[in-house]
């Protein structure tokens, strides 16, 4: 009876890495050398973090562009808020003009009363 899994021996011709392949990092890893699970997890985390950073940067750029577009439309008076603001400003100007006209009329009436009182 065997003790657990049987690991077959490699058959056929063995390929050894050349120094150039080792330096380039393209050499084939022998079966006996296994990558640490921790190293794999760390690499995966780094990849995920870099992807998250890229997506955050893209979102930030998107927000900035959207804000710039909105402000440009706002300046042109094409947004709903800009229209409301312009309407409100027009109403205020009208009220101020009416108030100034009323003050002028009252001032003229007051001066007329003074001149009549002198006579």
From TrEMBL:
The organism's place on the tree of life at top rank: Eukaryota
Compositional bias segments (type: Acidic residues): 39-61
Basic residues: compositionally biased ranges: 1-12
Chain spans, region Disordered: 1-119
Bias type Basic and acidic residues, positions: 62-119
InterPro entries: Casein_kinase_sb_PP28, HAP28
Residue stretches making up the Casein kinase substrate phosphoprotein PP28 domain: 37-108
PANTHER family reported in the protein's UniProt record: 28 KDA HEAT- AND ACID-STABLE PHOSPHOPROTEIN PDGF-ASSOCIATED PROTEIN
Protein name: Casein kinase substrate phosphoprotein PP28 domain-containing protein
Species: Eragrostis curvula
